[in-house]
Each structure stands twice: as structure tokens, then as C-alpha cells.
Design goal:
By secondary structure, the chain is an alpha/beta fold. The protein contains 13 helices and twelve strands. Helix 11 links the parallel strand 8 and strand 9.
């Protein structure tokens, strides 16, 4: 293969295992030779010399949520470009056994996006102690000297969402958490309560609906908590949901009770999944580019794998105004 590509055997090895360290033109020549010879490297044998398995893992909170699907798309695409194989794992159960398996399989790194109550934080550090680099997301409170982190600025996003609804004349603004104020990593709940106080809203804490263990945040949860909100008899004219799936479920519940969105009740979500654009009415949301998020996550994990450095990165969300929100036309009009 080296002869066909016109390079040394060492260059071939570097081009296949560490392409970022080799000129693009050289990598292209090597890959053309690989294709011509239908070469399939023995990754197990290679790992004995390179100390790398070229395998990484991504642990998801909810694979059925399109938000995480888009992240995987960006993460896996970026990883494949660097010849990494991605193991996709769901967070349906306790993850401690998963983490032990990562060690026995000698993965090079892991990106963990699952809610922290599903695993023991010490297990993350145990991975690091065993040479597996770790990237986390979800405000898990990890020691960033040991692991890297990529987060979304949900505090600023909730601030903007509340300000937006307030500018439309809404004063009784509900928040359907799915998680809850007792969980420190739901920064949206924390900021919601701060904004209620800052804006002087009359609802106090009464319109914050906490989730219940085991904390589901899917479309069914949004439907359920919206029905509970309406059943409570509390006045509200706008609802913010922890994510877009919950917002879609909430809109269904609101409509079933005979109210119109947004004429009677405005609804907002978080994440900016594509479903929201095609819902009726289309969903106003605090959005981010999920594919770029995934690509950036791999970049941070790879930097840790190659250079041993940990870092913190924060994404900003932007408001996407659609048809599920509107001005409160009559002051004091409540459901």
C-alpha cells in the first residue's frame, strides 16, 4: 500500500490512525490506495501498538427524541471522518454497568449526555483513571479538571423566553419542567423562578410543574403535565416546556380542553427539533444547531484523547418565533 501511495509505511500508519497529523493531500493518496487494494486494517492488532482502539461511545438520554438523533448525526459524522467507530448507547437503565463495559472494551473516549441520577459520578472518574477520556453534557457538576464539558446556556435561553412572553403581554407564565426545581442540573427551572421574581409576575412558584421520578420528558409527559396544569384551575396564558417534545404534547392537551393556541394560550419549547416546524400551529422555541453541537462534542473529545487536555464549551440558543405564541390581546383575559 505504501508503494502504491508513494509514501513510507509510517506515513500510511499515521494517515489511517491520526489523519489530522498528516497533510490532506497525503491522506487522500493513502485512502485511494486503500480503496484500490480493498484494504481492511486489523484494528485489534493496531491497537496493541498505537494504544488506541479507534472506538468511542456516546451515551444518550432518550434516543427517541429527535434532539439527540441530530446530535448523534453530527457526532458520528465528525468521528467517521477521523476513522473512529461510534458505539451508541441509550440511558434507559442505570449506566454503571455500561461504564464498566467501556473499560473492558478499552474505548478511547465517551460522550455522556444522560441525566446524572442514572449513574454514579465516581464511575466517570473511574473511566478517566483507566485511560478513557470523558466528555459530559447536562450540567452534571463534574470536575472539569478531569473531564471535558459541552453545555447549552439554558439560563440565558430561559431569560430570553420569559422576556419574550412578557413583551407579548403575558403575566401568568407556566413552566412544565419534567425534571424539577430540586434537581440542580435543570437550570431552566432555576432561571424561571428568578425571572418570575425579577418581572414581578403574580404567579409566584405556583405555575412551575415539577416532574416525577423517573423523570420522563417526552411528548406524553408534556401532554400529562399540561392536563394537570389545566386541572389545577390556576390562571395562565402562556406555557414554556422543558423541550419541544413536551411542548407538542402540551399543545395537544390544551386543544383537547377546548382552548386555542395561541389565541387563548401561547406555548414555547426548547431545542428546535424539526417536528415543531411542521406542527399545527408551528412551535416557537429556543433553538440550537444540534448537528454542529454533535460535531463540536467530538472535536472536544478528540482533543482530550490526542492531547490530554480538558475544556469547557457553552452553546448559545436563539429564539425561533413561530405561530404558537402571540400577544395577549385583552388585558386580564385568563382561561
Amino acid at each position: 500500500m505504501a508503494k502504491l501511495a508513494g509514501v513510507s509505511t509510517a506515513t500510511v500508519s499515521n494517515a489511517l490512525s491520526c489523519p489530522h497529523k498528516v497533510k490532506d493531500e497525503t491522506v487522500k493518496k493513502v485512502l485511494e490506495a486503500v480503496k484500490a487494494l480493498d484494504y481492511k486494517p486489523d484494528m485489534i492488532a493496531r491497537s496493541l501498538s498505537t494504544k488506541k482502539t479507534m472506538q468511542i461511545g456516546i451515551v444518550l438520554e432518550d434516543i427517541s427524541n429527535p434532539f439527540f438523533g441530530e446530535i448523534v448525526k453530527g457526532f458520528e459524522r465528525a468521528a467517521n471522518e477521523k476513522n473512529y467507530f461510534v458505539n451508541i448507547c441509550t440511558g434507559f437503565n442505570k449506566l454503571d454497568e455500561y461504564f464498566d463495559n467501556f473499560i473492558t472494551r478499552r474505548l478511547d473516549g465517551v460522550f455522556v449526555t444522560a441525566i446524572p441520577y442514572k449513574f454514579n459520578m465516581d464511575k466517570l472518574y473511574h473511566l478517566v483513571d483507566n485511560g478513557i477520556k470523558v466528555l459530559v453534557s447536562g450540567n452534571v457538576g463534574a470536575d472539569y479538571r478531569k473531564v471535558s464539558s459541552i453545555e447549552n446556556d439554558h439560563m440565558a435561553a430561559m431569560h430570553e423566553a420569559m422576556e419574550y412572553l412578557y413583551s407579548l403581554g403575558h403575566r401568568e407564565i407556566a413552566y412544565l419542567s419534567g425534571l424539577g426545581r430540586s434537581l440542580p442540573y435543570d437550570l431552566r427551572s432555576i432561571c424561571y423562578l428568578k425571572m418570575v421574581e425579577r418581572l414581578g409576575l403574580p404567579c409566584g412558584e405556583n405555575l412551575l410543574f415539577d416532574g416525577e421520578y423517573p423523570y420522563t420528558t417526552d411528548i406524553t409527559a408534556g401532554y400529562y403535565y399540561a392536563k394537570e396544569l389545566i386541572k389545577s384551575g390556576r390562571d395562565f396564558s402562556a406555557v414554556i416546556c422543558l423541550n419541544d417534545l413536551m411542548a407538542l404534547g402540551a399543545m395537544k392537551a390544551i386543544k383537547e380542553k377546548g382552548y386555542k393556541v395561541p389565541e387563548d394560550i401561547s406555548v414555547m419549547g426548547f431545542d428546535g427539533i424539526s417536528y415543531g416546524e411542521y406542527w399545527e400551529p408551528s412551535l416557537t422555541t429556543m433553538s440550537l444547531d444540534k448537528v454542529k453541537f454533535g460535531e463540536k462534542a467530538f472535536e472536544l473529545l478528540l482533543s482530550n484523547i490526542d492531547n490530554g487536555n480538558t475544556c469547557y464549551f457553552e452553546n448559545k440558543l436563539s429564539i425561533m418565533k413561530r405561530k404558537s405564541t402571540a400577544k395577549r390581546m385583552i388585558k386580564g383575559d385568563k382561561i
